[in-house]
Design a protein that fits this description.
The chain has 1024 residues and is mainly β. The chain contains 10 helices and 53 strands.
């Protein structure tokens, strides 16, 4: 026994001695070699053992290893694995390089950053290089086709216009559906800053230069968006600007491109003078020939002798007036210049840039110009205290014009509303101001009127971060977002809307100020292989708007354009709006050896848009991920590089209440009086709103399940996800009994479900030293259905019908609801409609035909993108496609352009499709016979003008050459690339009847705005 005890003590002592002698601590930071960003979630292991750890959210790690440990292995999804010899070293900092081109290693999510293998939700990050290269005025438009489930459609091709952005469908019927925009971690203003709803729209994102963007992250599921509480329901788009790198030399980047643009799709072709004459005489013969006994050859004499042409045809010189040509700015110039500098020393880094962009629109009088400057600076004031400031300032000037409807000054309208029998210019070269024109001559309007939007915007975001103790950081941030939107219109006194009143001028200043303050604590706790990250944040946001408007008429002479020079009918208006949010956010993340990830987010948010006792709400999300590829049972499966399963579920909200006109409604919960009335010359008031103290947020529950994978040495990587988003407590304008004295009240009622699948796939077909070829794509579906609506007193649903669309349970939001066109009677040439709205018996009486659902809505049921990249010894080719479908598009204004009566042949002008009109018994056509009448119903709303929205577009095609560094060293350049890029250069449309561009606004209507444009640009990027 004694011998055994002695032996045991010797062994214990030896074991203790062995343990004490063998253990030492290695620490350091892991960064990306691409941009110097710190990498969270990197796996560090002692080679040949299971001893390991992972980096925290700041890229730091600490690992205890034995004395016999020789090599550490650093691995991370999308990065090249590195093996580092640790003999004689206690501090090891590592920079990992990207394994696959375009694979994002660190994902910026606004309030936090995560490694790609730490994500539990649906988050897609697009690199800045993919955004910088696209020649668009607003950076959001460059995302089209790059993110599964993200639909972007241009409301107009006019440079700087607002784009409709939808993430995973449409969840709201009458509230806002635009995502929240976050810049450098702070929510900012996002609205149309045009001074008029009649002229070109102006996106506030037009103030941000794409060349300054480092990445754009799209947050789609509850795990990602719940952190934004009552504003995350429609998704979040996080824009991160470029930063400098510490301890790096100053480098300069110069980029420029020059080119031109035209409309991507021609659209409907207007009638020529001869075609119009033929159709007009057909109308005369069809209407009067039988009664007055003349044949088609006699129609001309009958029309002229009886003045049916109002003298227009008789005075026509036989030459076609080409209104399309004179209104078009063919090969409109596009140019952009950007210069930036970045670098840093041991304790600081900076990024600074200046940029200039100028783009002319494809119609006369349209242009866009922007000056921008950025300064981002970071400094370690002490070892524990860090300072950072990001600043963007820009001035944007847009020559706007009347394009949002059938305004007579709209140059897009001229080819359809002006007669090809009347010339734009007189014989002496002056602009034709004949009163016989179907509309104002836009040539004169463009030359002598003024209309512009001018936006000055400044975004400043600064913070201090203090390390209280190891792994515990306090951060305080303040952000300012100031926008001054100036709008001016001057209409001359000689012609147009200003004629007869001596001309007029109007001017407005709309000032937005958005203040955000944040205070947060971040703590990282490690226990062996378990890592916990905690964030507690308080955020306050205050948004104010000051609006001032003035108007005046009657200028004493030409050359004066300001209100101060007018002398009559002065008018002025001002308003003030404000709202505020107060939020408390908690985030917890758990990570076990990089295998098992879990996170929990909760946000309590209060908004001034709701009554006091309904002001606060709780929003939350839970998420989990399993990195299966790190399990031992897959360690021998050589073709799997990474395989992970993730899922999330949570609640987010929407406080974007809109009134019946689509404008922000900030006080819908209150009973309001309006003081705009007058009584016997004195001021008066009247009730203007029936409030609702129970009004609160729209909410949605989102379930998201996904699989992420990389295979065969990272040559294949992709994701597959399923989502189900239930939006409830919809903010609706519910009809009220007229006995209340009001027509509607905002209420929380109704439910909409969006569900679908999303998939992405990238494949390296060839990966070698000199030749590389990659193909990637994404695909997403969305099934939108209304499942609950408000009910009236007898318990029946209150359906929402607006002209050609209807919201009802069991159908998508705003499903198409109208009469169904049955074609043309081959014997009579009369238009036919189905009596029951679907099939069977037909009628020539438009109003006798029933309305019915016609399948689908304005919402695409699928979208996606496909791209490929090939490079060989410096030469490269990039091509990207975008496709969308499952929706239907309605041709607005067809009543005028496709009318089979006098609107198209005498008063305005029609389109070439009318040349297929019925002319005699037996003709089989979809175009009814022409008639001499203004009361024809043949072009009223019906499926005759409802088209499939399926299309494919070649979004971008680039050919370029990157000069090898060995050729640049003697001129001290670090990089040089030249390229030529075509955008939107080809569009394929499934429905051959659809002549307009298939990319329309989210409402599904073709408009008389500038369509999307195609461009060719020649560019250069220099680094020195």
């Amino acid at each position: 026994m004694r011998k055994f005890t002695i032996a045991l003590l010797v062994l214990l002592f030896a074991g203790m001695n062995f343990a004490f002698a063998q253990v030492r601590t290695i620490s350091g930071t892991v960064t990306s070699s691409d941009d110097g960003s710190k990498l969270p979630g990197v796996t560090i292991r002692v080679k040949g053992t299971n001893v390991g750890t992972i980096t925290d959210v700041h890229g730091n790690y600490t690992l205890k290893v034995g004395e016999d440990a020789k090599v550490l292995v650093f691995s991370f999804v999308g990065m090249r694995t590195q093996e580092i010899n640790i003999e004689g070293k206690d501090i090891i900092n590592v920079a990992l390089a990207s394994e696959t081109k375009g694979l994002s290693e660190v994902v910026v999510m606004g309030y936090t950053t995560k490694g790609k293998n730490e994500l539990t939700g649906s988050v897609v990050q697009v690199s800045g290089s993919s955004i910088n290269e696209v020649p668009v005025a607003t950076p959001d438009q460059a995302l089209q086709g790059k993110v599964a489930g993200l639909e972007i459609s241009s409301s107009s091709g006019t440079p700087g216009s607002v784009a409709d952005i939808r993430i995973r469908g449409v969840g709201s019927i009458t509230a806002g559906n635009q995502p929240l925009i976050v810049v450098d971690g702070v929510p900012v203003n996002s609205t149309n800053l045009s001074g008029s709803t009649a002229t070109s729209s102006l996106s506030d994102l037009a103030a941000i230069n794409s060349d300054d963007i480092a990445s754009i992250t799209v947050l789609k599921d509850a795990s990602a968006t719940a952190a934004y509480g009552a504003r995350g329901s429609n998704g979040v788009i996080v824009i991160t600007t470029k930063q400098g790198r510490m301890d790096s030399k100053t480098t300069f980047n110069f980029s420029a491109y020059l080119g031109y643009q035209n409309n991507a799709v021609q659209g409907e072709v207007p009638l020529t003078g001869e075609q119009r004459k033929t159709l007009f005489l057909q109308a005369v013969y069809n209407t009067f020939g039988a009664d007055y006994g003349f044949d088609q050859a006699g129609a001309y004499d009958f029309a002229i002798n009886n003045g049916l042409d109002y003298g227009y045809l008789a005075s026509w010189d036989g030459k076609n007036a080409d209104w399309t040509k004179v209104m078009t700015n063919k090969n409109a110039p596009v140019k952009s210049y950007n210069l930036s500098a970045s670098g840093g020393d041991k304790v600081s880094s900076f990024y600074a840039s200046v940029g200039y962009d100028k783009t002319e629109g494809t119609v006369i009088s349209s242009s866009f110009k922007r000056f921008s400057a950025t300064l981002n600076y970071n400094r370690d004031l002490t070892k524990k205290l860090k300072f950072s400031t990001n600043n963007i300032v820009s001035n944007t000037h847009q020559n706007a014009y009347l394009e949002q409807s059938a305004y007579y000054g709209n140059p897009n309208l001229a080819k359809y509303f002006e007669s090809p029998w009347i010339h734009p210019y007189n014989a002496d070269g002056t602009i034709n101001l004949s009163p016989d024109l179907g509309a104002f001559n836009p040539l004169y309007i463009a030359k002598y009127n003024i209309s512009f939007n001018d936006l000055t915007r400044a975004i400043s975001n600064s913070f201090l971060e203090y390390t209280i103790i190891k792994n515990l950081r306090f951060k305080t941030l303040i952000s300012f977002d100031y926008s001054l939107a100036n709008y001016k219109t001057y209409d001359n006194p000689n012609y147009g809307d200003g004629e007869g009143i001596g001309g007029y001028a109007e001017n407005s200043d709309d000032k937005y100020f958005n203040l955000v303050t944040q205070n947060s604590l971040d703590y990282v706790f490690r226990y062996h292989d378990h890592m916990f990250s905690f964030k507690a944040l308080m955020e306050y946001q205050k948004n104010t708007e000051n609006y001032l408007y003035g108007y005046g008429e009657n200028f004493p002479t030409l050359g004066l354009t300001n209100i101060a020079s007018t002398s009559a009918n002065w008018n002025a208006y001002s308003s003030f709006n404000d709202w505020s949010n107060l939020s408390y956010l908690g985030m917890i993340n758990y990570n076990y050896r990089g295998k098992y990830i879990a996170d929990f987010t909760i946000r309590r948010e209060g908004s001034s848009k709701f009554a006091t006792d309904k002001r606060f709400g709780n929003f939350w999300a839970i998420g989990a991920a399993w990195n299966m590829s790190q399990e031992s049972f897959l360690s021998n499966v050589k073709f799997i590089n990474s395989l992970r399963i993730r899922g999330s579920y949570g609640l987010s909200g929407n406080s974007d209440i809109l009134d019946v006109n689509g404008n922000p409604a900030l006080h819908s919960w209150q009973n309001l009086l309006s003081y705009s009335a007058t009584y016997a010359g004195s001021g008066g008031s009247l009730p203007s709103q029936f409030g609702n103290n129970n009004l609160t947020w729209e909410k949605n529950n989102t379930l998201d399940l996904g699989v992420d994978f990389t295979l065969w040495n990272n040559k294949i990587n992709g994701t597959v996800a399923y989502y189900n988003k239930k939006t409830f407590d919809l903010l609706q304008n519910v009809p009220l009994s007229m006995t209340t004295g009001f027509t509607t009240q905002d209420q929380n009622v109704g439910t909409v479900i969006n569900k679908g699948i999303e998939a992405t796939l990238s494949v390296d077909i060839i990966r070698s030293e000199h030749l590389n070829w990659t193909i990637s794509g994404n695909f997403a579906t969305v099934n939108n259905e209304v499942t609950k609506l408000a009910k009236n007193a007898d318990g029946t649903d209150i359906n929402i019908e607006t002209g050609s669309r209807k919201v009802a349970v069991g159908h998508p939001i705003y499903a198409w609801y109208m009469q169904k066109y049955a074609g043309v009677d081959p014997q009579t040439g009369n238009a036919l409609w189905y009596l029951d709205g679907n099939s069977g018996e037909t009628t020539t009486n438009y109003y006798a035909a029933a309305k019915a659902y016609q399948g689908g809505s304005a919402l695409p049921t699928y979208t996606g993108g496909l791209s490929t990249h090939v490079d060989y010894r410096g030469f490269f080719v990039d091509a990207s496609f975008y496709f969308s479908g499952g929706n239907k598009i309605y041709q607005d204004w067809a009543f005028y352009t496709n009318n089979s009566g006098l609107y198209t042949t005498l008063f305005f002008n029609g389109v070439s499709e009318l040349t297929n009109a019925w002319t005699q018994p037996g003709d089989v056509t979809d175009v009814p016979k022409m008639v001499y009448s203004t009361s024809s119903n043949n072009s009223r709303t019906s499926t005759r003008f409802l088209y499939s929205g399926n299309y494919v577009r070649l979004k971008g095609l680039t050919f370029g050459y990157s000069v090898p560094k060995r050729y640049l060293s003697h001129i001290k350049f670090d990089g040089a690339t030249v390229y030529v890029r075509g955008s939107n250069i080809f569009t394929w449309v499934k429905d051959k009847r659809l002549k307009y561009d298939p990319e329309v606004g989210a409402d599904g209507f073709t408009m008389l705005t500038t369509p999307p444009v195609k461009s060719i640009v020649f560019g250069v990027n220099l680094k020195f």
